[in-house]
Amino acid sequence: MQLSVKGSPVYAHTGGQDFDATKPAIVFVHGAGMDHTVWGLQARYFAHHGFAVLAPDLPAHGRSAGAALASVGAMAGWIAALMDAAKLGTAALAGHSMGALACLEAAARLGPRTTRLILCGAAPRMAVHPELIAAAEKDPPLARDLIVDWAFGGRGRIGGNIAAGLWLKAAAQRLIDRAGGAVLAGDFKACDAYADGEAAARTVACPALLILGRDDRMTPPSAGREFARLMKDAATAELADCGHMMMLEQPDATLEQMKTFLGTT
C-alpha cells in the first residue's frame, strides 16, 4: 500500500489483505536499519484475522522515500501522521527496538488514539556506543556485522530460520546493507539521544505488553521488566532461546503472545 505522509511517499505492508480502516487496526514499526519484512508472520496473521494492518517502512528505509527521521520524537510524530493518512482514528502500536521507542513516545502523545501498546526488545534508555555510531558512518560493513552479531541469540547466529536453508543473520545483514551506513548511523543517534523513555512510560494509559528475549544482549530482560513497572498497566512475556530479534528468532512464540494480548486466540 502506498501512502503520502508529510509530503513523502511511504510504503506500508498490509499483510496480504486489502486495507480497511473500519476494522480494528495495528501498526507495526521496525527497528534501526530494518524494514517492514521483519514483521512478516505477525502482520499476515492479524491481517487475516480481522485487523487492518500497516507495517510501514520508515522514511529512507525499505521502499519508503524521504529523509531519515533524526529523532525518536520525530518518529512518534510521523506515526501519528501515518495514522491520519490511513484515516485511522485509533490503533494498537507494536514496535521493535528503535521502533518500540517510537511507538512508546507516540502512545504517550496520542493518548486514547492508542488502544494497545506492544514493545519488543525495548528498554527506557537504549544508548549506543560512540564507536559503533562512528563505524556506521565510516565502515558500514563493520557496523553491520557488529550489530547483527549482538542482535541474535545463539540459535540465530547458526541459522535459526524455521524455513529450511535460510539464515536469519545473513538476512538481517542484507537489510542493513540496503539501508546504508548513513541511515543506520542516524538511527543509532536517534536511539542514543532519546532520554524521555521513563517519562513517556509513565504517561501511557493503554494496556501494554513487553516481549523480552531471555538471551537479549542489547536490551536485557531485566531492563524490560523494570520498564514495565513504570507503566500503569503493563505485562511482560519472556521468550526462551531468543535474543533481540524475537519476531524472527521466535516468530510463533512472539505471535502467540500478541494474539493473547490483543484477544484473538
Summarize the structure in words:
- It is a single chain.
- This protein is α/β, with parallel strands linked by helices and 265 residues long.
- The chain has one domain (2-128, 194-262): Rossmann fold, CATH 3.40.50.
- The chain has helices at 40-47, 72-85, 98-110, 130-138, 140-151, 154-157, 168-179, 181-193, 197-203, 221-229, 246-249, 251-262, and strands at 2-5, 8-13, 25-29, 52-56, 91-96, 114-120, 208-213, 234-239.
- Strands 1-2-4-3-5-6-7-8 form an eight-stranded mixed β-sheet, sandwiched between helices.
- Helix 5 runs antiparallel to helix 7 (168-179).
- The radius of gyration is 17 Å and the shape is globular.
- The two termini are 27 Å apart.
**Which descriptor suits the 3D outline?**
globular
- Into how many domains do the coordinates divide? 1
State the total count of DSSP E strands: 8
Helix content: 40-55%
Number of helices: 12
H/E series, N to C? EEEHEHEHEHHHHHHEHEHH
Distance between the termini: 27 Å
Instruction: Determine the structural class based on helices, strands and strand pairing.
Output: alpha/beta
Labels describing this entry:
265 residues; 17% strand; eight-stranded mixed sheet; Rossmann fold; alpha/beta; 8 strands
Sum this structure up briefly:
The protein is an alpha/beta fold and 265 residues long. The protein has helices at 40-47, 72-85, 98-110, 130-138, 140-151, 154-157, 168-179, 181-193, 197-203, 221-229, 246-249, 251-262; strands at residues 2-5, 8-13, 25-29, 52-56, 91-96, 114-120, 208-213, 234-239.
